[in-house]
Design a protein that fits this description.
The structure is a single chain. Strand 8 and strand 9 (119-120) form a beta hairpin. The chain is built from 4 helices and 17 strands. The chain is globular, with a radius of gyration of 19 Å. The protein has a 7-stranded mixed beta sheet. It has a 5-stranded mixed beta sheet with strand order 1-17-11-12-15, with no helix packed on it. 14% of the residues lie in helices and 37% in strands. The model is unreliable at 1-5 and 212-233 (pLDDT under 50). It has helices at 8-11, 67-72, 159-162, 214-232, and strands spanning 14-16, 24-28, 34-42, 45-54, 62-66, 88-89, 94-98, 105-111, 119-120, 129-133, 139-144, 150-154, 171-176, 179-181, 184-185, 192-197, 203-207.
């Protein structure tokens, strides 16, 4: 089988907490017990739904919900016959929303039969997190479109730091009204970046540099070498 690489992961130039796609996620704690229903939006239009339970008896610390799968109807949540253990989380845990495929996803989550959402992913609030990984070694600019804070990001190729990404601590950025601290960060390629939200925010990270995609070229060489080796077997 010919190895493939997702080119879209190296060509994406904008990462938006209110418009989810690969390599980004938003994280929220639902600290009140109950059943929650979520709506999936894609580019602002309804695209699917899901549900989950917050149970004080649960020991699950994180529930991850793929909005692209919920939009496809493959996962709609705890109340449609799926294994409930996959759709239950502790009030002290977190729910992580992401999209493994495509872009432009958002979610509105309400408790019980209430119409007003308790979580609106395009407008993060105090206690929420926005996490992403930037692969291309170049410069980016982070802006809070609601609160006004800004920060510069310079992603570097650093084989020493990325040798074991799973054990590499993320870089944390505190987001306040009109501020981001630290103001300048230099993560390694693919290292996690986590924005801790302390005020109403929508974080947009945009590529500004013109550095060649070194990471992409290195990975392409690696895949070509693997393919060549397999063809000789």
């Amino acid at each position: 089988m010919q190895p493939t690489i997702r080119r879209d992961l190296f060509t994406q130039e904008v990462f938006d907490s209110g418009s989810l796609g690969p390599l980004v996620s938003v994280i929220h704690r639902f600290d009140c017990a109950g059943t929650y229903s979520g709506k999936v939006l894609r580019h602002g239009a309804p695209a699917g739904s899901f549900a989950f339970i917050v149970d004080p008896q649960s020991e699950t610390g994180q529930l991850s919900i793929d909005l692209s799968e919920a939009a496809d109807g493959r996962h709609s949540g705890c109340c449609d016959g799926d294994d409930p253990s996959h759709w239950v989380v502790s009030p002290s845990g977190y729910v992580l929303f992401y999209a493994s495929r495509g872009r432009g996803y958002a979610t509105l989550v309400a408790e019980g039969d209430q119409r007003k959402p308790v979580f609106d992913s395009p407008m993060l609030r105090a206690g929420d997190l926005f996490a992403l990984s930037l692969i291309e070694p170049t410069t980016y600019h982070a802006t809070d479109r609601i609160g006004g804070g800004k920060a510069g990001i310079a992603v570097k190729r650093d084989p020493k730091r990325t040798r074991n990404l799973r054990n590499l601590e993320p870089v944390y950025v505190e987001v306040g009204q009109g501020t981001m601290q630290p103001h300048e960060i230099d993560p390694a390629s693919a290292q996690g970046i986590v924005f801790r939200i302390n005020t109403e925010s929508r974080i947009v990270v945009q590529k500004t540099g013109k550095t060649p995609d070194d990471a992409s070229r290195v990975l392409h060489r690696s895949f070509r070498a693997d393919a060549s080796a397999q063809n000789k077997i």
